[in-house]
Amino acid sequence: MEVMNDEFYMSLALDMAERAQGQTGINPVVGCVVVKDGAVIGLGTHLKRGTGHAEVHALNMAAGQAAGSTAYVTLEPCSHYGKTPPCSERLIAEGVARVVIACEDPNPQVAGRGIAMLREAGIEVEVGLLRERALRLNEKFVKYILTKRPFVTLKSASTLDGKIATRTGDSKWISNESARGIVHTLRHRHQGIMAGVGTIIADNPSLTTRTEVPGINPVRIIIDSGLRTPLESSVVTDGQAPTIIIAAETADAAKEEALTAAGVQVLRCGAGPRVDLAAAMSRLGELEIGSILLEGGGILNGAMLEQGLVDRVVLFFAPKIVGGGAAAPAAFAFDGVELMRNAVTLRGVEVEVLGDNVCISGIPELV
Ligand code: AOF
Ligand code: ZN
Questions:
Q1: How many helices (H) and strands (E) does the chain have?
Q2: What positions does the domain CMP/dCMP-type deaminase occupy (predicted)?
């Protein structure tokens, strides 16, 4: 049985925000619950960048009755004129008496000013209720708003011996249905999905979101130094989502022209014959891609990890062992460390058991 308290309403606000993940672009997900005289009088969630913030929807629902109420908001109300007017002003104008906030807004345009505005207007403000959950929920937003580079989630599905295919290249399927379902939900929750050209040539994947209910397709991003992506591959021809190919400076101009004519956007990143992955992340950030799900092969995964470009890993393990030595590709292929104490180590580890599969997630830390 649940107890009615501040946490009860903040959890509701967080639940609403959680379900809107994937549809707000570079904006955060935010939930707001307005409570007065023991009853909920307004609920709101930010649904889409450029449209109303959570507080605005909730206060609109409260229809002028919010004076003296308590508003629970998962993120500090904004203080700036962005695509919409400041929520702090609206809360003040409505006569809200108390505002409970889960976490501060790291956006430099806000960063405490929203809280200050509310307090200056005489509103009782409490900050920090369920802060950790709120920050975890908006980890993509926090990274992007502070660095202008995308938050990268590396996903892999491997056998217990770390393989993503057998020595003959067979890989269907490694993980079970629940794990595969989660992967498609993860696709929905990222603005971009990234793979290497090797994966495109080997598997011709569509890299779309296929969930039980319709989901949003991420922009497909292919790392392809030499522009080897076949013109007849699904990511070029199926029109399911935009495709960006990231190539090196030296790649063939005629191939670029053919790909561009087929509707693909080709970006050149890095001076030499290989893609500069860090530069690629900055370019994608400029294009307002704030989050990327990396579904690479071992080499791309290893390179991104080694260069510190991965913000979270989500690793699915199936109870299988396929051996195969170097002929069977591994989830991570990089030179690696000499000593165990120098291993890439995960912080904030979360473990989820999915039937006979296991999902291990965490934030990788390089030594
Ligand atoms: C809130 N409530 O529901 C959201 C907030 O361009 P705009 O107007 O949508 O502003 C985006 C910024 O506003 C975003 O970077 C973040 O700082 C804040 N988002 N704030 O009070 C909301 N979505
Ligand atoms: Zn706002």
A1: 12, 14
A2: 4-126
Distances in Å between the alpha carbon of 162 and those of 78, 178, 265, 277, 351? 45, 19, 34, 24, 17
The dihedral through the CA atoms of 38, 39, 42, 43 has a sign that is: positive
Please enumerate in sequence order all residues whose Cβ is within 8 A of that of 1, keeping only pairs 6 or more positions apart, or say none.
none
Q: Left if phi > 0, otherwise alpha if psi is -120 to 50, otherwise beta: which for 336?
A: left
Q: Give the model confidence (pLDDT) of 79-116 as tens digits.
A: 988 888 899 999 999 999 999 999 999 999 999 999 99
Cα distances (angstroms) measured from residue 332 to each of 152, 166, 297, 312: 16, 15, 8, 14
- Whether 298 has a binding-site annotation, put simply, is yes
Q: 283-335: per-residue pLDDT in tens?
A: 999 999 999 999 999 999 999 999 999 999 999 999 999 999 999 999 999 99
The pTM is what?
0.95
**Are residues 161 and 295 both part of a single domain?**
yes
Give the tokens for residue 217.
């397709």
Report if residue 1 sits inside a domain: no
Which tokens belong to 69? Answer: 């109420």
Ligand-binding site membership of 246 (annotated): no
Are residue 222 and residue 289 in the same domain, yes or no?
A: yes
Beta bridge mates, 195: 222
Index of the ligand 1 atom closest to the CA of residue 26: 15
Ligand 1: which residue has its CA nearest to atom 22? 53
User: Residue 336: which domain range?
Assistant: 148-365
Pocket lining: 99 vs ligand 1, CB cutoff 6 Å: no
Domain count, the chain: 2
Neighbours of 184 (CB within 10 A): 15
SS3 at position 292: strand
Tell me whether residue 187 is annotated as binding.
yes
Catalytic annotation present for 256: no
Out of 7, 55, 257, 365, the active site residue is 55
Do the beta carbons of residue 77 and residue 86 sit within 8 Å?
yes
Distance 53 CA to ligand 1 centre (A): 6
Looking at the structure, tell me whether residues 283 and 204 fall in a common domain.
Answer: yes
Cα separation, 177 vs 248, in Å, equals: 37
